[in-house]
What does this fold into?
Amino acid sequence: MKRLTRIKTLYRVPPESGQGEVDAVSDAAMVWQDGKVLWSGPESELPHEFSTAEAIDAGGDCVIPGLIDCHTHLCFGGWRGDEFAARLEGASYQDIQAAGGGINSTVQATRSADIDELTDKATAALADMARLGVTTVEAKSGYGLNREDEIKQLEVYRRLNDTQVLEVVPTFLGAHLVPVEYRDRRADYIALLCNDLIPEIAERNLAHFCDVFIEDNAFTLEEGRRILETAKAHGLGLKVHADQLSAGGGAGLAAELGAVSAEHLEYASEADMAAMAEAGTVAVSLPIASMYLREPYLPARKWIAAGARVAVATDFNPGSAPSYHLPLAMTLACLNQHMSPAEVLRGATSHAARAIGLENTHGSLLPGYQADFAMIDAPDINQWLYHFRPNACLTTFKRGSRIT
Ligand code: NIG
Ligand code: FE
It folds into this structure.
């Protein structure tokens, strides 16, 4: 049993409260055992039975639930710095993709990388993320776009769960793009996804979720429906890259099919916003992608007013969001999505947990929750997200053990 004392502010983030109600406790303590929180609250109310637990001094800093990055494309070969420069000179993300670059060029680099190389690269990213206070990461495939290389990416995630300490929640994104070799026979690629890959991945438990990129130049709404319905029938949870660059109706489809989340959503309609709120589908905002693509940010005030849960994630990938700095995404969400630091904290903890189906065990520091937490060098989250620094996280704990 261990006890954390002298916490200036402890954010317990109860899962069922409103977006900005994070249950901040001043002068707090927390007790955990076997990787789970036993007690948390004001230090003056610490029950006697816990007073002898081995103590760690939080030194007047604040403690938050471990951050959850609920949307990343963690495993990929290469980078795309030259496209970044081309975009700065006026080329559009969609034009670059249509010319065979963009996602296509990362597909080539990922296909030619071997599994060890991909695992090492992702391991290094996860180690940096842990130092920033991140304890759980959702990670998508989608840069293989054939059986062998999609499964290779999912195998990387399986290995990462065996070899390093952050939890990696795998999502199958074979429907990221129709690969060039199927350009003139896209129905065959969709058949490959639905008849072969989804059944195999579900059977081998290689992914918890299936995601589809519904967009011009990617998949149509009807194609997305077929793929997601197939995934659902095979027991996978659903996610949708929806309405990122244009209004494609993906958010409404996510709500209709009971997806756990829909992501991006910059162009989602108000009707679809209401449908997602009603269905309990989490709206995952990705402000780093908006910044890099100079696209609109998620109008979070409208989403929250509509009753939706808004999560905040990085979208880490080599194209639209080449950064895994979740605290940066959080500060951007404050500034550009007009969210308070408290709303954003919930967006990267409890609501992020819900977006990957872990809301009953992760993202809160109430008793019974996994003891994943980060100590932040600031008295409270207002100071933390306002005074942006390379890293304000002092230490990160995963399942009750110190990992950084
Ligand atoms: O979430 N929107 C589609 N996929 C990624 C970008 C992938 C890439 O550019 O490599 C995204 O932004
Ligand atoms: Fe994405």
